[in-house]
Specification:
Length: 303
């Protein structure tokens, strides 16, 4: 349970409740062979939290609550979105920050970024990009795209307008240095900064936002290893196979995750009209330098 954010609610004089999402710790192994734990994580824990929280308030104050609000970010943002879709009566207002919606494709895209840069065995892979070289890449991205808004201020205001060309950092005459890119690394970057499409050409997930690589936490995705989130989700929830090797991870694996959609976790379709009709208010936001979850994932693919 996140007691820091629970304290935030009480500091504003709300009767506040938080959830462990149906399991202890931050390790996905709890999902293995436990579909009900997956259901808790995907949708049920927040619903139960809302029901029990209201019961506790009524028992303590001897009168029912007046309004109920939800605040969450990332996974919590996705869960808030899911609450509005599945249980529109639970909350009067929802703040869903940086929601990790389109969840299966998000985890698949995260794993593919690692694969582009050599995961799961990056050490001897020619596509691997070491951390120091990412600093060079970040500087070049800013150099190419900072002025697109007419102001040189160290900020890429609209990453969608940035068409980064890693070829500008190509090593001259194949002389490899610590400040240039070999061709396999250029090829890897062109994949990183391109949308991810499925085997039938449908959009699975948008590209990595240019500029996000400058954030220190970007190495979570771009280190040449498989991030723990997709590692755990695919092994323990989608495939139910703790021995699965990401050497075998590909687009078909992501598409399988969408077919299975454990716990209906995708949170990428549905109808908010019931939440709107009951007067619910839904606020969401997302930064354009989110190094793990892309803001442009808000836009579903066209039919």
């Amino acid at each position: 349970i996140d007691y820091t954010n629970l304290d935030y609610g009480t500091s504003l004089h709300f009767a506040s409740i938080a959830s462990d999402n149906g399991h202890d710790g931050n390790d996905g192994i709890v999902f293995l062979n436990h579909p009900e734990v997956i259901n808790d994580f995907a949708f049920r824990a927040i619903h139960v939290e809302a029901l029990i929280g209201k019961q506790i308030v009524e028992a303590y104050y001897r009168r029912p609550h007046h309004k109920s609000y939800y605040l969450g970010c990332s996974t919590g943002g996705r869960q808030g979105t899911q609450a509005a879709l599945k249980f529109p009566g639970d909350f009067d207002g929802i703040v869903a920050g940086s929601p990790a919606t389109n969840f299966n494709n998000l985890q698949g895209w995260s794993a593919m970024l690692g694969r582009y840069i050599g995961a799961p065995n990056a050490t001897d892979n020619p596509s691997f990009i070491p951390p120091d070289l990412w600093n060079v890449i970040a500087q070049e991205v800013l150099k190419q795209c900072d002025a697109l808004d007419g102001v040189l201020d160290g900020i890429i205001t609209e990453p969608d307008a940035c068409q980064f060309r890693p070829e500008a950092l190509a090593c001259i005459h194949n002389e490899i240095t610590s400040s240039c890119l070999a061709q396999p690394q250029i090829d890897a970057l062109n994949k990183v900064y391109a949308p991810l499409y499925g085997t039938s050409g449908d959009l699975l997930y948008p590209r990595y936002d240019p500029g996000a690589e400058a954030d220190g936490d970007s190495q979570d995705l771009l280190s040449g290893s498989i991030l723990s989130f997709p590692n755990d989700w695919f092994r323990f929830a989608v495939l139910n196979d703790s021995t699965f090797s990401f050497d075998n991870f590909n687009l078909e694996t992501i598409e399988l995750a969408n077919v299975i959609n454990p716990g209906s976790i995708a949170t990428f379709s549905g109808d908010l009209s019931a939440f709107e009709a009951r007067g619910g208010k839904f606020l969401t936001y997302h930064g354009r330098r989110d190094q793990v979850n892309q803001a442009s994932s808000y836009c579903p693919p066209a039919d």
